[in-house]
Amino acid sequence: MTRFAFNIHARDGKARTGTIQMQRGEIRTPAFMPVGTAATVKAMKPETVRSTGADIILGNTYHLMLRPGAERVARLGGLHKFMNWNRPILTDSGGYQVMSLSELRKITEEGVAFASHIDGSRHMLTPERSMEIQRLLGSDIVMCFDECPRADQGKDVIAKSMEMSMRWAKRSRAGFDSGEEHAARSALFGIQQGALHQDLRQASADALRDIGFDGYAIGGLAVGEGQEAMFATLDFAPGMLPDDKPRYLMGVGKPDDLVGAVERGVDMFDCVLPSRSGRNGQAFTWNGPLNIRNAKHAEDTSPLDDRCTCPVCGTYSRAYLHHLQKSGEILGAMLMTEHNISFYQQLMSGMRGAIAEGRFAAFASDFRRDYFAGK
Ligand SMILES: [Zn+2]
Question: Which CATH number fits domain 4-270: 3.40.50.300, 3.20.20.105, 3.40.50.720, 3.40.630.30?
Answer without folding.
Answer: 3.20.20.105
